[in-house]
């Protein structure tokens, strides 16, 4: 039984090596250890703007709604990939206390942002429902797809805010201090 489990784990290791992710992570780790840089700030900021743009486009007509849905899903996938190689990564090697603290800081910022947006959304949806009875139509999610995409948007915001917070908390590199 142990031999079978060992063969399964070896197969999974070889499958992971075929994807190239372990080699890429090893190179990224080497770069990050060689000189502390603040990676992924621009990409995370662009993804935050893009997911909000996707949410706005989702409120438009059929063509705009389709593009908004695609943009939100693409931002989710891109955020997951960027997070794997950012200071928020959680695999490949044990983390020291500094990295754990950095990740905790990022998670706190990300979750606090999503909590504030969720509370604001509850107030907005309450007002929108009340005003809809009076004849004013403010946007709020109406069907299951819109609610799902709203949740996906919040996940993307959490991922990118946590990456930005952790990236800004890194110490400055020698190139940045000059």
Largest sheet: none
Structural class of the secondary elements? Answer: mainly alpha
- Alpha carbon gyration radius: 21 Å
Strand content: under 5%
Helix content: over 70%
Order of helices and strands: HHHHHHH
Mean pLDDT: 83
Determine the N-to-C terminus distance.
Answer: 59 Å
What's the shape? elongated
Low-confidence stretches: none
Q: Tally the beta strands.
A: 0
Number of helices: 7
Q: Secondary-structure blueprint of this entry?
A:
Elements: H1 2-19, H2 21-34, H3 41-57, H4 62-84, H5 97-134, H6 144-169, H7 174-177
Helix pairs in contact: 3-4, 3-6, 4-6, 5-6
Account of the 3D structure:
The chain has 178 residues and is mostly helical. Helix content is 79%, strand content 0%. The radius of gyration is 21 Å and the shape is elongated. The N and C termini lie far apart (59 Å). The mean pLDDT is 83.
Considering the chains and any ligands shown, give keywords for the structure.
about 180 residues, about 0% strand, single chain, elongated, mainly alpha
Give a brief outline of the structure.
This protein is an all-alpha fold.
């Amino acid at each position: 039984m142990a031999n079978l489990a060992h063969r399964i784990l070896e197969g999974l290791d070889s499958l992971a090596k075929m994807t190239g992710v372990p080699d890429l992570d090893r190179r990224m780790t080497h770069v990050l250890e060689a000189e502390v840089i603040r990676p992924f700030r621009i990409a995370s900021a662009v993804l935050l703007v893009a997911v909000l743009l996707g949410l706005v486009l989702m409120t438009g007509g059929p063509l705009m709604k389709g593009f908004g849905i695609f943009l939100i899903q693409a931002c989710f996938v891109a955020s997951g990939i960027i997070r794997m190689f950012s200071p928020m990564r959680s695999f490949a090697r044990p983390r020291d206390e500094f990295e754990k603290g950095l990740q905790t800081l990022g998670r706190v910022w990300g979750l606090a942002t999503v909590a504030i947006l969720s509370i604001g959304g509850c107030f907005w949806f309450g007002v929108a429902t009340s005003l809809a009875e009076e004849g004013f139509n403010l946007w709020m999610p109406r069907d299951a797809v819109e609610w799902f995409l709203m949740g996906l948007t919040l996940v993307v915001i959490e991922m990118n805010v946590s990456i930005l917070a952790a990236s800004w908390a890194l110490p400055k590199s020698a190139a940045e201090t000059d």
